Amino acid sequence: MLSASLALLAPLVLATASPDSGPTLRVTVDSSRREVVVTAGPFVIRHMPKNMDHGMMHEMEGTTTPLLRFEWPMEAWFRGFDISLADGQGRPLDSRLVHHLNVMNFNRRQLLYPAVERMVAAGSETGSVSVPKSIGIPMQGGYQLGMYAAWNNTSDADIEGAWLTVRLAWSPTNLAPRPEDILPLYMDVSYSRVTDSYDLPPGKSSKSYEFTMPLGGRLLAVGGHAHDYAEFVSLEEVQSGKTIIMLKAETDATGLLRKMPRKYYGVRGDGLKLTEGRRYRIRADYDNPTGALIPNGAMGLLAGAFVPDDYARWPALDPNDPDIQADIAMLEKIGKPSGGGEAGHEHMDHN
Ligand SMILES: [Cu+2]
C-alpha cells in the first residue's frame, strides 16, 4: 500500500517554503528511484578572496545558505544521498562548489550531545554516499528536517542563480528482510553550542574529549573530519588505554589535508562494540608547521553508523532543554547576514 500511495504523491510538490526573499525549496518523491528529492534555489555563490582562511570563509555572507527547512514525507529507512548543483538553465555546475552540506532532523537528538541529529554531513570529497539495503536510519512521515550548504567558490567570479538538488535515498517499510536500524553517532573533541572548531597552536598538539557511553551498541562504519595539518583522529578506551579507532589524515607534503579515511567494521558482522557505561576518549592530533596559531583552524570529529543495543532507550529530544534550544537557534542563524557570527563555524564533515 505504501508504494501505491507514494506513486500518487510522486508528481506532487509536497512542500514549498519561500521566505520573503531568498531561496525556495521543493520536495518531491521519486518513487521509482526511491528518493526524496529536495531542490533549493536560486543561490548566489560568492567567490572567495584569495587570502581567506577557513574561519573567515564561514563568516562571509553568501558563502553559506540559510537553514532550509522541509518535511520528510513518509515512513521509511533513509539510506543514502547524492548532491548536485546546476545553473538556472539546468546545466550542471561543479559539485565541489558545495564545500559541505548538512541535513538535520529536528525530531531526534544526538546520543552524546544535547543537539539535534545530524542525518547527513557531506563534504566536497564525500561525493554520494549510500549504505547497504540491510541497514538504514528509521524515518517517520512528518519529521521536521533542515539543511544548509556552505559554498567554496575559488573562481574569480560570483555564480548567480545556482540550484542545489539533494537526493535522499530510502528503503520502503515492506522491504524484506527488514533493515537494521542505524543512527548517526557523533563524537567531537571540541563540542560546544556555537562552534566546534578551535584554535590550532603552532607545532604538535593534541586535543581530546572524554565521555561515558550512555547506551551500548555497535559501530558499523565510521568516518572522520579534520582540518589542514591534522595527523589523526582516534577513539581510545580510557581505562585500558587501547586505541579502537584510528583514522590517519591523508595530507600532502606541506601538511594540507587531502582526505580522511573511512573505516568499515562489517555491515553483517558484529561491528565495533561500544559498551554502555564505559569511558571513551576521542582525540585529534595536529602538527602545525606555520609557526603561528591558526584561529579556528582545527576540528576533530568522528561520525559513525551506530546500531544501538536498545533503540527504545535512545534519549528523547526534549524541546524544553536549553541546550537543544540553543542548538536550534544556532542553526537558524546560519547564513543570515548579521548576527550569525560564530554560528557559521558549525559544520560536521567536509572532507
Ligand atoms: Cu571543519
Give a verbal description of the structure:
- With 351 residues, the protein is mainly β.
- The protein has helices at 2-9, 54-59, 322-333; strands at 15-17, 24-30, 35-45, 68-71, 76-86, 92-93, 98-109, 116-123, 129-130, 135-139, 144-151, 159-171, 180-181, 183-188, 198-200, 203-212, 217-226, 230-237, 243-248, 250-251, 257-259, 262-264, 272-274, 279-288, 294-298, 300-308.
- The protein folds into two domains: 2-7 and 20-171, Sandwich (Jelly Rolls); 182-320, Jelly Rolls (Sandwich), CATH 2.60.120.
- Strands 1, 2, 3, 5, 6, 9, 10, 12 and 13 form a nine-stranded mixed sheet that branches. Strands 14, 17, 22, 23 and 26 form a five-stranded antiparallel sheet that branches. Strands 4-11-7-8 form a four-stranded antiparallel sheet.
- Residues 1-19 and 339-351 have low confidence and may be disordered.
- Copper (II) ion (CU) binds at residues 197, 225, 227, 299, 347, 350.
- Residues 197, 225, 227, 299, 347, 350 line the site of copper (II) ion.
Keywords:
351 residues, mainly beta, Jelly Rolls, 5-stranded antiparallel β-sheet, disordered N terminus, disordered C terminus, binds copper (II) ion
Topology:
Elements: H1 2-9, E1 15-17, E2 24-30, E3 35-45, H2 54-59, E4 68-71, E5 76-86, E6 92-93, E7 98-109, E8 116-123, E9 129-130, E10 135-139, E11 144-151, E12 159-171, E13 180-181, E14 183-188, E15 198-200, E16 203-212, E17 217-226, E18 230-237, E19 243-248, E20 250-251, E21 257-259, E22 262-264, E23 272-274, E24 279-288, E25 294-298, E26 300-308, H3 322-333
Parallel strand pairs: 10-13
Antiparallel strand pairs: 1-2, 2-3, 3-12, 4-11, 5-6, 5-9, 5-10, 5-12, 7-8, 7-11, 14-26, 15-25, 16-24, 17-22, 17-23, 17-26, 18-19, 18-24, 20-21
This protein binds copper (II) ion.
